[in-house]
Amino acid sequence: MSIPTKDTIFGQITYKNKQYDLLNQPLGKIQADKLNKYKKKNNCSISSAPWSVNKFEWIIKDDKLYLSSIKCKLCKNKENLISDIFDTNELFASWVDKDIRLLVSKKELGMNKQKRMMIEIEFLILNFKNGLLKNLKKETEQYRSSSLKYYLDQ
């Protein structure tokens, strides 16, 4: 099992006709429990391997957040599980009462003295209350990556 980093992707979201990567997961506990119950009932394998995890797609329409797609590589013969689990094609995310971070850009700035790659990410922070978009702001952050990828590149 890997540890999420500042640039771990938890799905995609479409906002103002543009697709972004999600830097945090807005799925609620009740919805996650329903998904896991469905996967157990339908003999879908459960794994935390990066190549087998669930893929969530979200959309913002009229300042409302919707879960629009759930895909799982370990559920055979299923393109999108959302209608099977929630009896709808798009689920209004009324449970979301937090900030959601969308990745706008990511740049490698070079190695620091400790041989760690310096990364700069630009992201949008969308603030939701009961699934409704309340405000947004853009931020930039720099951090050191401890990813094995950069050690192997040396």
Structure summarized in a few sentences:
With 154 residues, the protein is α+β, with helices and mostly antiparallel strands. The protein is 16% helix and 44% strand. The chain has helices at 29-41, 82-86, 148-153, and strands at residues 12-15, 18-22, 54-61, 64-72, 91-92, 99-111, 117-129, 132-145.
Structural class: alpha+beta
Uncertain parts: 150-154
In which order are the strands of the major sheet placed? 5-4-3-1-2-6-7-8
Q: What is the approximate shape?
A: globular
Question: How far is the N terminus from the C terminus?
Answer: 25 Å
State mean pLDDT (0 to 100 scale): 82
Strand content: 35-45%
SSE arrangement, N to C? EEHEEHEEEEH
Tell me the Rg in angstroms: 17 Å
Helical fraction? 10-25%
Reported for the largest beta sheet, the result is: 8 strands, mixed
Count all strands and give the number.
8
Compute the number of helices.
3
Structure description:
By secondary structure, the protein is α+β, with helices and mostly antiparallel strands. It has helices at 29-41, 82-86, 148-153; strands spanning 12-15, 18-22, 54-61, 64-72, 91-92, 99-111, 117-129, 132-145. Strands 5-4-3-1-2-6-7-8 form an 8-stranded mixed sheet, with no helix packed on it. It is globular, with a radius of gyration of 17 Å.
